[in-house]
């Protein structure tokens, strides 16, 4: 297996990988493949940190990074990764961990100072992430007095985040409309959606 930069010729295959990885996991169907598609066209997209995992010429995983937003402006030193996706049949083999660790090393080499993400704290603690609220960093509409454990931060430069508190947000492409998603889905083969459940995102 090799890790390399995603090429334009990989785009459709990588979107399929992302769709397979997220389908029916957090909601009926998924929208992460559309997020990936739109993020590549955004000014927040970091091409140098767009990597794929390839096995025998087949894309089996992907990680993509973007710059965070603060007060409507793009942050040049605080970034986020996601979606990160691994084909279901290759999950549990450490490929996702490898993508995260190797690209965060590269992010540090490129001069980025910190990474913010949302996700499962139990999983991301192993990579050194802690609650962003420890640095007085919050998402819009979140309580400044309560810890949002799913919103996490990792410094690439020591003591950087404590000097940059505030309200941060992800690119708006992370919240695509249902209409846009419905149109995008017509470009893919049909997949059955599960029923909605309490707790769906």
From TrEMBL:
What InterPro entries does this protein map onto?
Answer: Acyl_CoA_acyltransferase (IPR016181), GNAT_dom (IPR000182)
Q: Which Gene3D superfamilies match?
A: 3.40.630.30
Keywords, ordered alphabetically: Transferase
Q: Where is the N-acetyltransferase domain?
A: 1-157
Q: A GO molecular function for this record?
A: acyltransferase activity, transferring groups other than amino-acyl groups
Please give one Pfam family short name. Acetyltransf_7
The superkingdom listed in its UniProt entry is: Bacteria
Name of the molecule in the record: N-acetyltransferase
Source organism of this protein record: Anaerocolumna chitinilytica
Traced from the root, the source organism's taxonomic lineage reads:
Bacteria, Bacillati, Bacillota, Clostridia, Lachnospirales
């Amino acid at each position: 297996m090799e890790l390399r930069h995603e090429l334009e010729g990989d785009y459709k295959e990588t979107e399929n990988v992302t769709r397979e990885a997220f389908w029916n996991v957090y909601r009926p169907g998924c929208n992460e493949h559309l997020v990936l598609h739109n993020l590549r066209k955004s000014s927040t997209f970091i091409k140098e940190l767009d990597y794929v995992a390839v096995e025998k010429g087949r894309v089996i995983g992907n990680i993509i990074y973007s710059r965070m937003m603060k007060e409507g402006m793009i942050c040049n030193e605080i970034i986020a990764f996601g979606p990160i996706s691994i084909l279901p049949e290759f999950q549990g083999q450490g490929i996702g961990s490898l993508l995260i660790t190797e690209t965060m090393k590269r992010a540090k080499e490129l001069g980025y100072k910190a990474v913010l993400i949302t996700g499962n704290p139990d999983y991301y603690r192993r990579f050194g992430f802690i609650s962003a609220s420890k640095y007085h960093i919050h998402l819009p509409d979140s309580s400044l007095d309560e810890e949002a454990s799913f919103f996490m931060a990792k410094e690439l430069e020591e003591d950087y985040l404590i000097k940059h508190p505030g309200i941060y947000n992800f690119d708006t492409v992370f919240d695509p409309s249902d209409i846009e998603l419905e149109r995008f889905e017509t470009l893919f083969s049909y997949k059955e959606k599960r029923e909605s459940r309490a707790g769906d995102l």
